[in-house]
Amino acid sequence: MIALTAALAAALPSVPAMAQESTAPQEASEEADPGTVIVTGSRIKRNGFNEPTPATVMSGELMANLGQVNISETLKLIPQNSSFQSDATAGTTAGANVGASFANLRGLNPFNGTRTLTLVNSRRFIPTSDGGAIDLNIIPSAMIQRVETVTGGASAAYGSDAIAGVVNVILENNFQGIKAQVDYGQTTRNDGKSFHASLMGGTSFGDGRGHFVAGIEYQKNEGIGDCAKVRLWCAESYDIFVNSNSILPGTTARSGFNIPGSPTYGLPHYVIGPDSKQAYNEPRGVLRNRGPAPVQARNLRFNEDGTAVVQFDPGRFVGEAQIGPRQGGDGVSTYDDSDIQTPLRRWVGYVYGQYDLTDALQVQTEFTYARRTASSTNAVVPPRSTNFFNADNAFLPESVRTLLNGAQFSFGKDMDGLLQAYNESDATVFRGLLGLSGPLFGDWTWDAYYQYGRNDRHQQRTGTRVNTPFIYATDAVDEGLVKTGVANGNIVCRELTKANPDPRAQGCVALNLFGLNNADPRALAYAYRPVMQDFKYSQHVLSGSVQGTIFDGWGAGPISAAAGADYRVESGDVWHGDIPDYNDYAFTFGLDYAGEIKVLEGFGELNVPVFRDSAIGDLLELNGAIRYTRNHAKNRDSGEQKTSGTTSWKVSAVYDVIPDFRIRASRSRDIRAAGFRELFLRNVPTEPWSTSGIVNNWWLNPVASQTGNDGTPILNGGSFALTPEKADTTTLGAVFQPRFVPGLRFSVDWYQIKINDAVTTLPGQRIVDFCHQFDIFCDRITFAGADRKDITFIDARQVNLAKLEVRGIDVELDYRLNLSDIASSWNGALNFRILGNHQYDFISQANPAASPRDYGGQSGPVVDGGDFNPAPPWIWNAFVTYDNAGFNTTLTWRRISQGIYNVERIGPEDEGYDPTQPNSINTNRVKGATYFNLAMSYRLPMGQSDTRHIELFASMDNIFDRKPPVAPGGGGGGGSNYPTNPVYFDTFGSKWRAGIRVRY
Fold this sequence. Notes:
- The chain is mainly beta and about 1000 residues long.
- The protein has twelve helices and 52 strands.
- It has a 22-stranded antiparallel β-barrel. Strands 1-4-5-2-3 form a five-stranded mixed sheet. A five-stranded antiparallel sheet has the order 17-16-15-23-22, covered by helices on one side.
- The longest helix is centred in the C-terminal third of the chain and has 11 residues.
């Protein structure tokens, strides 16, 4: 039922990225009988399987050698994986998956779904996110035997979601004995503290007819706080600024790249630089530089008491929308509220059992229970730029009221000193499985199982602005002055002085935001309230398969086959509580929605050895697989239903020209049906003129402003009109294992993935751009008139793009050298391993009418709000390990090459750079980075047994404390969450971990 390390070792020529094998003799007994093997990517069981698709294997022993305690750390060692969702990418986002870590091969995961299938023991697992992904935190890392990764289409073998590949986590279900571990780690700056402990045990029973394994694991990460406050490189606050239509302080004049004679003319349209602050985000409050306030009443900051004003320095690059990043001036850093690492706690329990009921029938069972809690700091939503205050506000000093002369004013304030906003998640997962297996005839076997899984997640965000109550609370007046014309000093909400006040004004307390600490806590509680989300998801799976030899073939080897059927029912319900006026909140988790997905699949696979030991080669083996998938979805809110049928297939070959040299190739048609969130998500339209409710209207201003000139509601969410994605994946590679250099393996594989009808989210601005440039998606925009001068609504729900196309090269070298081969007196062994990925194409085309754009090599901001994540041109991971008796030391080298900041921009490094052009930027490169990690361990024997020992270990990551390069806009949902890209660059700094393991 599980693939074995020993059997995989027999297939070394076929697998390009094997585990770092230094298995101690005492661990050999933990391996099961290697006579039956399942290798990820195939459903055929057999000896010495030769995998034709590029695969990477990371052993549990390598994880232990490196001091890793979470599988998400291990996946970062695989260059093909993009850690877009992890504890290092929360930033200021308030998403429901805070603290979770997802596998994301080739960076192809859409923001609301997944194209990487995560398996546990070669079986599907209950999704832990409404996008269908599996949180790696719920997998017991201490019990991992190995992690197999197939970086190519595997839909024919496993079904939907495997377009980018499969991550298969194999657990130690044949473990004998007891193993315990306790460890602690932190950064060298005394933050990021992490405690971890695990315990597992296994034993046989019933005279060897049964086996039982159980384990528990606990981890607590305290996290790393607000970026600009705890790291000097972040306090520099590099960001990207927009140099167009900037309003000059004290005037109504504009400055920009396209305005000759203006102060910033000569600079390009986009400027990357330090000292980023958000426009008019100031703790004491400031009058913005916009009408209807007269010029003399703009750019004024209140004192701490809120009784007077002084001049405010707004910095550079503040556009007409009065929002977004600006350079310099007064105020706090943009990154003051971006957590570097999410605080996290996780508990995992796992039980496995098997028993031979008869010689021909075995029963297996698995149970997993896990809980994860996480939280991140969020910025408190301030007054929007179009939330105008009245000149008769009772808290205004008379001097300001005089300057206003009755005019309204736009008010900016950093609210974080008054309230704290947290995004908190508490998720529990249960999975239970009951399986049966046995022989049929000959070498044919059968297996079947039923699996039930359930995920319950509670999400809460505190300190969320309620728009109407906020307006009522900040519209403070003197009650006597309003009612009688004579002031009586009783300051109340204006709405309450009306004859028939809005019922929502009940409980309103006047809110004074001028100065510091002048706000009444009751007023804050009235205007800012928590929002929540409960997500419940269940999964039922029935699966059965048979496999064996059809006939012995014609001397090249047996012709084998596998066939089976899978039936899966998944249903989810998302509820947001009975919160009054939920649509009136500045931030929500979306609206209530529910749906059900039923999947029925049948598959078959055939493996044919064509020749062996022939004059034209040592081996030629062909493999083919086909799967039909019927997907039925039902929206439980609207009652809509839809059914789709899709076929996936795969053909592959391995050709051993000589024993030293192998050629392998595969071609597959892979499919992915839209998932739960992509189909059923319902959202509230964004707030007009907020940072997410504003676009550039090219018909209003044909010269690119990129600062937003048209505020409009934008509707995001799922769409029941989505069709299944189809992908064509091609791989071609070679494996070289020269007999004249024992222990050396080298492989290189070329890959191409073409996805048609890719499900994605187009931001509102992208829809406007496509309509203006190509006259597509215009039906998603509502205009107030035929002249298109005013956009009143944008439908930005999920769409099927024309295509995504990814190409690249995977490289691996592995060499093991026994030092005694050099000198008989030398002890121990060295192992060298290098993994590399070169992604040279990442092409996106929204529509056949639109021009394709190649994002290959981009390592700056995410694309389309994180709907796919391109990689730097080259990513390398290398390991050098020395083993000698009970001592092990491993040096890890990771290299991320220089990349392009944004392929849509042209900088001085690019051909055609012109600072007067709309796509100009002052630099369009992201520097590369090199990291070194070092780990050591030493085993102390307990008695005479090789299976009993105490092991001390320690590790240091980023030992030279390399700060990340500048790449603003990385991570999170596409905003300026960090001045770098934490998906690829380390933001924690030097960190160490030390602990003890006991094996008995």
